[in-house]
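Suppose you are handed a protein chain with no further information: no name, no annotation, nothing but its sequence. What can you learn? This example shows the usual starting point.
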Amino acid sequence: MRIAALIVAAGRGTRAAAPGAGPKQYALIGGRPVLAHTIAAFADHPEIDEIKVVIHADDGELYAHASGCTAKLSPAATGGATRQASVHSGLEALAASKPDLVLIHDAARPFVSAATISKVIATLKSARAALAALPVTDTLKRASDRGVVEDTIPRAGLWRAQTPQGFHFEPILDAHRKAAEQGLDKFTDDAAIAEWAGFDVAIVEDETGNIKLTTAEDLKLADRQMTSNIAFEPRTGTGFDVHRFTEGDHVWLGGVKIPHTHKLEGHSDADVILHALTDALLGAIGDGDIGQHFPPSDPKWKGAASRLFLEDAARRVKDRGGRIVNVDITVLAEAPRVGPHRPAIQALIGDVLGLTPDRIGIKATTTEGMGFTGRREGIAAMASASVLLPYGLSE
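A reasonable first move is to predict its three-dimensional structure. Written in structure tokens, the prediction is:
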């Protein structure tokens, strides 16, 4: 039996995330995007064979940084104007792989447990549809238009619908197709479509921890919960880079264009500071070196701004749930002088790595006329980076 998970991540949800951070499913909790945690919950489950994520058309880059690496993840599908349309799009995209069962889940529920996933799958052995839900424990009131209590609603038999919601694949795809054909687009969850199509929907009691992150406060609490359960270990990486001078009128150092009598020769912009710093970050996480990820033999990187390399290294740290603590750089050169440009270099590096200036050391020294730098044949730079990486859950 082939079982797929369909994760719905096409919503905007911007009111929950920090300004400029994008939709809530890409907000960071515990050092990783919400969506990354949600994908991992299904990727780690032994009964799930395939994961399909439905994303907004504008979120391709955000998704690429959040999706991580798992063999179960198939290419993302593009969502529609409503949740119902997004799920329908995802189901159509899954049709080619012919799953027997599908579990449909909200991206904003990263705390779903393996036990809940297992119970929904088990229920589908005897039912065409299964709904993770929680019994209503609060007293419910219906309010009038004047904002006063109009009625008390008995809570017996009432449940709060959650996800995952599980279905036999072909029947739920057929139900979505029929609803779309009839112009019915107001269903707020897939269990409602199943009910409309005449399915009996079995209830699976969920766990209270499977909350949906809706507000900014939810994200803060989730981050606190994730972080409190993660133990971090310090990592240190070092980098070294050197480039020779050639004819020109400026050099790039730390992403800053500095007038000079020569320029540095290299396939990219030959920025020794950013090259050394990129290698230091890659070294801290054991992920090769700059030449491996951006080979000088590739014409794509000819003349490229080295900021791109540093951004990629920072993303690799972030994708591992890591945090960059501080960086320190020493430039070896007779000229040009680095000191006057220190604030600008710190500002650029801080912008890329999310660090304040007090966490970015920029120093320069000469070699007293000795060696290739002393003979003004080129410039060298050394860098170190300190990173905190999660290595497991604390007890």
